[in-house]
Specification:
mainly alpha, elongated
Amino acid sequence: MEKIELEKIRQLIKEGNYELKKLYEEHVSLDKQVEVLSNKSYLTQKEQEEYRNIKIKKLQGKEKMLKMIANM
């Protein structure tokens, strides 16, 4: 995400937007999971599927957050 988008998200969270806070916390958590899997030298088939699913879920959450800040 762009720096300005992150600043807007943080500001809205401070203002009490709990839905956005939940999405952002989930995004950060998914980002950490992606990092862990990315640092592995080899991924099993199951891990590859998990990696793809996490990336999809992360992207969907990002899109929701961007829509929310665009509408505010």
